[in-house]
Amino acid sequence: MFAQEELLYFFSQTQTRRPAVVRQVLANKRTVSNLFWGMQYQILDWLNTQPQMESLLFDKAIKQLLRQAKLEQHPNGLLLTAKGLSARTQYAALHYRIKQPQLFQRLDEKMWEDVLQLLVQVTSELAYANKHYYVAAASDGAQAYFKRWFRTAKQQLQAATLGKMLLAFLKDKPTREADLFMAFFNGHGVVAATSAQLADKSNYNISDIVNLWRDYAVSFAWFLLHQDTYFQALVAPLFKQSLLSNSTAATYAQFLKGALPAQIAKSRKLRLSTINEHLLEAAIFEKNFAFKRLLSATEIEFLAGIFTGPPSSWDYQVIEEHKKKIDFFKFRLFQIGRSKHDL
Amino acid sequence: MISETFLTEKLQHFFGYNSFKDGQAEIMRALLAGHSTLGILPTGTGKSLCYQLMGKILKKPVLIVSPLLSLMQDQVEQLRYLGEKKAIALTSELSYQHKQFVLQHLGEYDYVYLAPEMLQKQAVLAQLMHISLGLFVVDEAHCISQWGPDFRPDYLDLKELRQKIGNPLTLALTATATSAVESDICQQLFDTNEVPKIIRRSVDRANIFLAVKEVTSQQQKNEYLLQLLPQLKMPVLIYFSSKKKADELSQLIRAKTSLRTAAYHAGLAKSDRYSIQQQFMQDQLDVICATSAFGMGINKKNIRCILHYHLPADLESYSQEVGRAGRDQQLSLALLLFDPADIKLQRQLSSNTLPDDLEIEYYFRHKGLDHKHSAASEKELLLEYYTQRAMTPEKIRLIFKRRRLRKEEKLQALINYLKSTECRRNFLCAYFGEKRVVQHTVTCCQPAGQPLVLKRFLASKRDQTAASVPHDYREIIAALFKM
């Protein structure tokens, strides 16, 4: 769920941006091209923040923003207009914006939201020694996952510990937001409010309320992950160790051990082009990526000589004009390295 | 012969109730005597308890075929609430691994809920053939009847599936069935040599006053509703046939009155639906603006009024929905707001669920339907069902033509009910083929043309003493964790 004006956050007054890239980054459609352009637009932190994004609704919202002259069409994409910037500023003053977007690509958010509801409800009923209650709506998978953890944690689980964790997490947050977050939980004698009811009682709309709840929920998971309590074992398996997709991680593991792309392709029985795509993805996400194992000093020197200015403005055709044989993979790798200031 | 005392002891032991509701004990006695049974018990008379208690007494698995995912989940939650851990809904919502686990351990569950489509799966049938079932239950059994309002083609295969698992002792349950539906259920579910016992209880509910308010426009309907609602005894459940309208009116009521209102329909997030149900159960809401998605599995005893903003599809749905009022046996009101223009809307809604001739032709030519239309997938499933059974387009056309005709007949019966100048309760009894005749008085219902006197249903003083809900996050945490 998103409000039309929220999309204005992802456009710039100076850099033309393709709306399809924005949509696919938000919805976590991970092609190397999307990831690369997402990085150029500096919106990669927002990867997977709207996994349910419907392209029809997104396209409709963009059309509407164009019609309202808040965005304008240019040959290479859309630019935010002065009117759009002013609308964005006004919107930002009144509405909630996710503060920790980067956590959404690390956590199994859907599962965690169900697990968190169960955790609060079950612990609350435990505090009152009540066994007869309707369990909060949660997927079957979340219930099974939670039960597995609960069986081992039950003996030491203290309701007050969870209460203290929540208090510690919320103590530095704006009170209004903390109140709204806690109003979403069911427990013993406590019935949650719906997002529509909370929107009615606050100055926020439903989309704000949903964003606030999701943001606080994933941030609380991150908080629990760094506390030395039995809740750590509940959240840790829901966090990804790496931002890479599974297949990319397998390729990158071999690369780290010293294998070259052709060798990896042979051992993984994949095409070289697929391995190259994996390495580009790793170059985008991994710190200390060894660019120089794939680009020679001469190639770097040549590319640095012909390309200046922001990497997003470079054109591969320029290399061909110099009659040099540097393939697109190396060109893109150099673009990524320069964007990250690693080359 | 099983004694009443034995059954009551078991009821007390497992469910904590001291006595049965009308019809329950008779059903159980019939089953314990080995007779497959069709139970026609009105909404709110505890149909589920019949098979739940049977499971406890027989100490063998009970398999329940149910048409709706949400209904199955509600039933499983209710059993879990009662402390029953071995209940499962075998649905497409389970993960692959979990489904495999459940299938391999099917015989270890006390209650297994599934949809007829799931029962058709070879892997499920294969497991069931090795299990000694205590009871086979067909819930919402009217879905088996082409004469019924919610006919589901998948239900037609139940007879064959039941044979495959050795014709176990069976209980078919429904809240409303005309005589035609009753005989259809028996014919479609049982072998010719089986004579099921039929236990029927009247749809008539003496504590529910039946009334219709005719209006001439939607605006007039809204004005009347806004003027009446704040005066009524709470809680009130208002039924709508559209999600959008339920949302709109819920907002309007909130804006124009001090009533605590929420909308409830399938378009809401699961967690919101759960919260609204809980708020309603705990009297934190006065009014719910709902579609027919609300009600099944919700057992609130003190609903004082059921309002129908739109026309229901037929008298079967109407009497089920109205039956949610006054389960505490206290005086309650069922009021239908009737704008003649609504007939067209309901006719459209009814025919929308069935493919027309053009769509049948399109389906056969393109092997699918155009999904630009919202009801396309439902229609496609229906067409798929019939084509898989090698039916020709001509035959399918004929089937849907007949079904449309039946729907129209049912709508006509509803219109007759609305316009009836006779006792409305007698009208319903006659419609459902009951011989019962109610002694009509001014306090039993309001026939068409008679003044609508609602004095008995108005609150003398609005009770606003509901417990205050904490808003400060520290208070919520303290309340949640007893800190």
TrEMBL record, chain A:
Pfam entry (one): HTH_40
InterPro entries in the record: Helicase_HTH (IPR029491)
Protein name (database record): Helicase Helix-turn-helix domain-containing protein
Entry superkingdom: Bacteria
Domain Helicase Helix-turn-helix: 248-335
TrEMBL record, chain B:
Gene Ontology biological-process annotations: DNA recombination; DNA repair
Domain of life: Bacteria
Ranges where the Helicase C-terminal domain occurs: 224-370
InterPro entries listed in its UniProt record: DEAD/DEAH_box_helicase_dom (IPR011545), DNA/RNA_helicase_DEAH_CS (IPR002464), DNA_helicase_ATP-dep_RecQ (IPR004589), Helicase_ATP-bd (IPR014001), Helicase_C-like (IPR001650), P-loop_NTPase (IPR027417), RecQ_Zn-bd (IPR032284)
GO cellular component annotations of the record: bacterial nucleoid; cytoplasm; replisome
Tagged with keyword Nucleotide-binding: yes
Keywords of this entry: ATP-binding, DNA-binding, Helicase, Hydrolase, Nucleotide-binding
Magnesium in keyword set: no
Helicase ATP-binding domain boundaries: 28-195
A GO MF term: ATP binding
Protein name: ATP-dependent DNA helicase RecQ
Species the sequence originates in: Liquorilactobacillus satsumensis DSM 16230 = JCM 12392
Classification of source organism: Bacteria, Bacillati, Bacillota, Bacilli, Lactobacillales
